[in-house]
Write a structure and sequence with these properties.
- Helices cover 44% and strands 12% of the residues.
- By secondary structure, the chain is α+β, with helices and mostly antiparallel strands.
- The chain folds into 4 domains: 11-41; 51-193, Sec63 N-terminal domain-like domain (Sec63 N-terminal domain-like fold); 197-236, no CATH class; 248-410 and 484-492, C2 domain (Immunoglobulin-like, Sandwich).
- The strands form 2 sheets. The protein has a 4-stranded antiparallel β-sheet with strand order 4-3-6-7, covered by helices on one side.
- Helix 3 runs antiparallel to helix 4, helix 3 (51-60) crosses helix 9 and helix 4 packs across helix 8 (124-137).
- The longest helix has 28 residues, at 15-42.
- Residues 44-405 form the SEC63 domain.
- One of its GO terms (cellular component) is Sec62/Sec63 complex.
- InterPro entries: C2_domain_sf, Ig_E-set, Sec63-dom.
- One of its GO terms (biological process) is post-translational protein targeting to endoplasmic reticulum membrane.
Length: 499
């Protein structure tokens, strides 16, 4: 295969220009492009954010950080994540900031203070991002097209930034900021204030506004009550609400347990799996009623269940695979989010007494199994922890369950005598001969001091047997003496013996 080049390139009179072009491309443009990409990548962390943003997260987040402090830490990153050329102020922007200050009050000033620089000045990019974020959380209308576009850009950056912030919190095993960051995902997805009440969360449903919640507050407790209330009135909004609830994710913990592969008990410092079985279904859905089984069928079902769990634990998957018939597009109802939203859940194992995170999310089953691997505590005892299931899309759809872990010492293995200890030595072997001599020596020593010489002679003979090579069967009569020895042997008598 050849390449057809223009005639003027290969002509001798144009050689100098061709060489100059090659020199510019390969000596200037290409190194500049590679260097730009190289040094640009060095400014990014593995989470895909600016290294200075990650440093700001590390310094700002604290063990007792509230969700407002998390928002302030998030706003700090936009000094480097939001290009300075895109930040601009306008009359509408100033009006939005005044409205936010009126609605949020002191907490708005707290967030601004957290996002300030050391000189107590709020960078313009941070101010711009925080105003647009709170305008989204409060569902304030943004009319300016350029400002709306910038708000969408800021919102679409939040998952990446929150993920990096979450990694900082989890690395330090801090529970309170970890849960606050996870919940902020849902508030941003549904455009709800971070202090939304139980009834205000009903506005996640379509066509339900804040003023519509007040008349329903006395009769409704959850979203299914809102649907029933609208259907009783033949309200046309009930169709949209029903369609949204079909894509809603109500999570239920079927079971949660600790497992160690191949072991019945959990020993110190062992590799433990937290096995959580979840059922995620639309609100108001009741699980199918299990059929009654006989004793044999129940035993078989339990055995199949255990085999399925063991197979899943031995696999490399973090979540149990579902058949294609039980999977769907997974697009959630989130009309205020700029784009499609696929819901997911976090599984957190934590010790709420010390506010610490302990771990760092079949075809015939109507639930799905998940596992988290971690190393168990080095000491024995009973540990009472809690499992948190938090949604990143649906506000209020979180459940907790207490769980206990008992760490026990490994069972004591009884010392079994070895084959050498059980079997009698052959008399023709060195071990057999030594056993005979040892018995004779012990007997003569036990007879008193007068037989000490006999015992000493027996020891000399035993030594000669070992040194002489091939062993011959010898029978020594009681009291007999064998004096064939040539190598001195040290022998210590008992302390109270007589020489």
């Amino acid at each position: 295969m050849g390449i057809a080049l223009p005639k003027w390139i290969i002509e001798g009179k144009n050689r100098i220009w061709v060489l100059a072009a090659y020199g510019l491309v390969f000596g200037g443009a290409l190194p500049a492009l590679i260097g730009r990409r190289w040094f640009g990548s060095r400014q990014k962390t593995k989470d895909g954010i600016n290294a200075q943003s990650a440093a700001a997260f590390f310094k700002t987040i604290k063990e007792e950080s509230s969700i407002e402090e998390v928002v302030g830490a998030l706003g700090m990153a936009y000094k480097w994540e939001l290009p300075a050329g895109k930040t601009k102020s306008s009359a509408e922007f100033d009006a939005l900031e005044r409205t936010i200050k009126e609605k949020v009050g002191a907490k708005w000033m707290e967030v601004r203070k957290i996002a300030q620089d050391y000189d107590e000045e709020l960078h313009n990019s941070r101010r711009q991002a925080l105003v647009l974020l709170y305008a989204h959380l409060l569902r304030l209308e943004v009319k300016d097209a350029g400002l709306k576009k910038q708000q969408n850009e800021v919102l679409l950056q939040t998952p990446l930034l929150l993920n990096a912030l979450l990694n900082v919190s989890v690395a330090r095993t801090w529970l309170l900021p970890t849960l606050a960051i996870m919940r902020l995902y849902g508030y941003l997805a549904q455009a709800l204030p971070t202090n939304a009440s139980q009834h205000l969360r009903l506005t996640q449903l379509p066509c339900i506004k804040q003023e519509d919640v007040a008349p329903l507050a006395t009769r409704t407790k959850d979203m299914t009550d809102v649907l029933h209330s609208l259907e009783e009135k033949d309200d046309p909004r009930s169709k949209d609400v029903k369609k949204a609830l079909e894509k809603w994710g109500h999570v239920e913990i079927v079971s949660a347990s600790f497992k160690v592969i191949g072991e019945r008990i959990v020993t110190p410092s062992s590799i433990i799996y937290l096995l959580v079985k979840l059922r995620i279904s639309p609100p108001g859905t009741t699980p199918s009623t299990p059929t009654e089984l006989t004793v044999d069928e129940t035993k078989k079902a339990v055995q199949v269940e255990e085999e399925t769990d063991e197979k899943f634990l031995a696999s490399r998957l973090d979540a149990e695979e579902l058949p294609s018939s039980k999977t769907n597009g997974g697009v959630a109802h989130a009309p205020f989010w700029p784009g499609t939203r696929k819901p997911s859940w976090w599984i957190v194992l934590a010790d709420d007494k010390s506010d610490r995170v302990v771990s760092q999310p079949g075809a015939d089953r109507d639930y799905r199994a998940y596992k988290i691997q971690f190393q168990g505590p080095p000491n024995t005892g009973l540990f009472t922890w809690k499992v948190y299931i938090v949604s990143d899309t649906f506000v209020g759809e979180a459940v907790t369950s207490e769980i206990s872990l008992r760490i026990e010492d490994p069972p004591a293995v009884e010392d079994q005598p070895s084959d050498d200890e059980n079997s009698e030595p052959d008399e023709d072997s060195i071990a057999g001969q030594m056993a005979v001599w040892e018995a004779r020596v012990r007997a003569e020593l036990g007879a008193g001091t007068r037989n000490a010489a006999i015992a000493l002679s027996l020891l000399w003979t035993a030594f000669d047997i070992i040194a002489s090579g091939p062993i011959k069967r010898k029978t020594i009569p009681r009291g007999g003496i064998l004096t064939d020895h040539s190598v001195p042997l040290q022998f210590d008598f008992p302390p109270n013996g007589h020489h």
